[in-house]
Task: structure prediction
Amino acid sequence: MSAHPANAPSSTSLGTSPNSARWRRSSHSTGMNNCVETALLDGGLLAVRDSKRVHRPALLFGAPAWSSFLESVHQAGAS
Result:
């Protein structure tokens, strides 16, 4: 049996953040850098990193995993 639910977002470490990526920060971000940044990569992957620790590895999400994650967040906020 898997330790993760079947609909949980899958992720993998990039190792290092790609230098050529164009990182975006949420418009809801405060000036305190308390947010995450995202970047679209080749192959339709989304990279996600901590804005306070940009030198650390980012996570990669495929479109289905990211959509599932966002849906879960929206459902949790609605309940």
